Amino acid sequence: MKKTKIEIRGIFTGWKEVEPERAREYVKILKRGITNLSDTDKNKYINSKRLRGTTVEELEKCAK
To answer: How far apart are CA 49 and CA 30, in angstroms?
Structure first.
């Protein structure tokens, strides 16, 4: 089974390949820091601008 490549993008850095656990931590930090959006809008923003290879929903589902 081929492992999916997960990438995150920082504010001042480009795309960086990471393990799923690191991506989950990154999403938690982003969600705490974004205060002016609803949870649904936070997920849409992170999925479109900060994550590649997975979604916030998939990461949160795997963590439970």
So the answer is: 12
Residue 18: exposure state from Cβ atoms within 10 A (0-12, 13-18, ≥19): middle
CB atoms within 10 A of CB 23: 23
Question: pTM of the entire structure?
Answer: 0.87
Amino acid at 23: A
Does residue 59 form part of some domain? yes
Give the pair of three-digit tokens for residue 55.
């979604």
Residue 25 included in any domain? no
Domain of residue 53: give its range.
Answer: 37-64
pLDDT at residue 1, as a whole number:
40
Mapped onto helix, strand or coil, the DSSP state of residue 26 is: helix
